[in-house]
Write a structure and sequence with these properties.
Shape of chain A: elongated
Distance between the termini of chain B: 43 Å
Number of helices of chain A: 10
Helix content of chain B: 55-70%
Radius of gyration of chain B: 21 Å
Number of helices of chain B: 12
CATH architecture of the domain at 1-80 in chain A: Up-down Bundle
Largest sheet of chain B: none
Strand content of chain B: under 5%
Shape of chain B: globular
Order of helices and strands of chain B: HHHHHHHHHHHH
Radius of gyration of chain A: 28 Å
CATH topology of the domain at 1-80 in chain A: Four Helix Bundle (Hemerythrin (Met), subunit A)
CATH class of the domain at 1-80 in chain A: Mainly Alpha
Largest interface: A-B, 23 and 26 residues
Oligomer: heterodimer
Chain lengths: 211, 333
């Protein structure tokens, strides 16, 4: 068990340090890199408690997809220029700091409630209606819970996500005039007779193509 | 305490036993790639260093080692140095779960295929880091292109993997191979094999999908500012990834270490050799594609990934699962 706890402390140390560095580091791209490191070490912790499926899904979804998008956005926006406005030494009233403080206070109280619940009801794990079995692999048990026991809730959340996605597309979609689109069917079905056009041009007069 | 050391010793031994052949074969595969390419174009290819030019890659590696590493002054130095390291590491750690035979695998984990998928989805970071840290326009454009491309094609690879998993009922790579004892998945899932092959080309930035490099427009994409051994590490990582994709295709569709027919002269050849044959077969296909097909345009590439491959492979998931359900062939009952 010694090796196990040594690895546990290494991974949790990396997770905590990188979580702090996400907020502290001045370069926003570095922040995202630390966020990625944080995700990776947390997925290592998941794997260490035997939840290998969750750990891998964490890597695939958060590190492989979500963080790439974060990185995209952060690299594209020139945050360094705005930083002077956000964290200027004098407070000009309408900054992000009060809102940020409010949000962090709410999250802090939520954390207290969650950890306090654990403290006052130590047998929380046993009072769950779900049976945690060590016999089946956790891929199978997650599948059972998601697709058998709670299939309706799962479907509803899928529908909500789909609606959100369609909403985002509809909100940001704008039809631009004058954009030429490629049509494979049109290109392939073009015959030589339509492609070549012989025009009898008059002297000193232009010919109108592209009719 | 003694047992810990013995465990560590055996694991290190196993890892070295895997990594050294992989690295050597990466060097050889570069040579093979160039030879096949030259053969198609009626050239000779590298044929001077050693017999048939076999040692050409070693000579190239020596050249890279002795070249100066130039780090641009305005680059982000730490990230710039880390990027090739990340690429190379990620390309090598995925080999841990590839089964070369029955019980002949470094880490026989339950979620092997997810591990492979996760590591290959991390591969995009080496490229983004390299492109961003160079602090220069072409590398940045190349990195952005490459990231968009790799993320897009990962989606269709994920759906293709679901097709295979439906037929197997396990995420373990050895189980996936053992499920193909009677019938390789390339026969029932042939359209998926084709799409997997094309997506693997796009995922590893091979021609015709090598827009991240695009030497004609972006100089060399994300690796423009790299020189010496750091460039060589990007290169090696790329080829290790290509080999890995071939291995993945061999395990998922071509029956891994199994022999094609289970009769005497074939099943006497040990499993690892069969896997190597299959990897080489897939790699030669990769090289032939490189030699014959012109480069895609970027919007066509995206259209192919999102509008053709993704809907088709989703449709095939429905088809496979309904087929399995109707004929009562679902595994793991």
């Amino acid at each position: 068990m010694i090796a196990h706890s040594v690895f546990f402390y290494i991974f949790s140390l990396i997770a905590i340090v990188s979580a702090v560095m996400v907020t502290v580091s001045k370069n926003t791209v570095h922040s995202v890199f630390f966020l990625i490191l944080d995700f990776i070490s947390i997925s290592c912790l998941f794997i260490m408690i035997g939840a290998e499926f969750l750990g891998m899904i964490m890597l695939i979804v958060y590190v492989g997809a979500v963080a790439v998008l974060f990185l995209f956005v952060v690299m594209m926006l020139n945050v360094a220029e705005q930083k002077g406005q956000w964290f200027s030494s004098r407070w000009d009233g309408g900054t992000h700091i009060p809102v940020g403080l409010l949000v962090s206070l709410i999250i802090f109280f939520e954390l207290i409630i969650v950890i306090g619940g654990w403290k006052y009801k130590p047998d929380l794990l046993n009072s769950l209606s779900l049976k945690i079995s060590t016999e089946v692999t956790n891929t199978k048990s997650i599948g059972n819970v998601l697709y058998t026991d709670y299939i309706l809730l799962f479907q509803i959340s899928g529908m909500i996500l789909l609606v959100a996605m369609i909403g985002a597309i509809v909100l940001t979609y704008r039809e631009r005039a004058g954009v030429k689109r490629q049509s494979y069917v049109k290109q392939i079905s073009r015959e030589r007779s339509e492609g070549v056009d012989l025009v009898e041009a008059e002297k000193n007069k232009g010919v109108k193509i592209d009719a | 305490m003694d047992s810990y050391f013995s465990i560590i010793f055996t694991e290190v031994y196993k890892i070295l036993f895997l990594l050294v052949p992989v690295l050597v074969s990466v060097a050889m595969i570069v040579w093979l790639d160039r030879r096949v390419w030259a053969f198609v174009q009626k050239r000779r290819g590298p044929n001077v260093v050693g017999p048939f030019g076999l040692f050409q890659s070693l000579a190239d590696a020596l050249k890279y080692i002795f070249k100066e590493i130039i780090i641009p002054a305005s680059s982000n130095k730490l990230v710039f140095v880390l990027a090739p390291v990340v690429t190379m590491t990620l390309a090598l750690i995925s080999w841990a779960v590839i089964p070369f035979g029955e019980n002949f695998v470094v880490a026989d984990i339950n979620v092997g295929i997810l591990y492979l998928f996760a590591v290959s989805s991390l591969g995009v970071y080496g490229i983004i880091m390299g492109g961003w840290a160079s602090n220069s326009k072409y590398p940045f454009l190349g990195a952005i292109r490459s990231a968009a491309q790799m993320v897009s094609y990962e989606v269709s690879i994920g759906v293709i993997i679901i097709n295979v998993l439906l037929c197997v009922g396990s995420l373990n790579l050895s189980d996936i191979v053992m499920a193909q004892q009677n019938l390789w998945f390339v026969i029932p899932l042939f359209p998926m094999f084709v799409i997997f092959f094309i997506s693997a080309l796009a995922e590893t930035n091979r021609p015709p999908f090598d827009l991240p490099e695009a030497e004609a427009e972006l100089v060399a994409g994300y690796q423009t500012e790299y020189s010496g051994m750091m460039y060589a590490m990007f290169w090696l990582g790329e080829y290790a990834n290509i080999l890995l994709m071939c291995a993945m295709g061999a395990v998922l569709f071509l029956g891994g270490w199994l022999s094609p027919i289970d009769i005497f002269p074939f099943n006497a050849i040990p499993g690892p050799f069969w896997l190597i044959f299959k990897i080489l077969f897939l790699f030669i296909l990769f090289a032939l594609v490189k030699a014959t097909v012109p480069r895609y345009r970027y919007d066509q590439l995206m259209k192919l990934g999102w509008k053709i491959f993704l809907p088709f492979s989703l449709f095939y998931v429905v088809l496979t699962s309904s087929f399995l359900l109707y004929f009562d062939l679902l595994p793991g009952k």
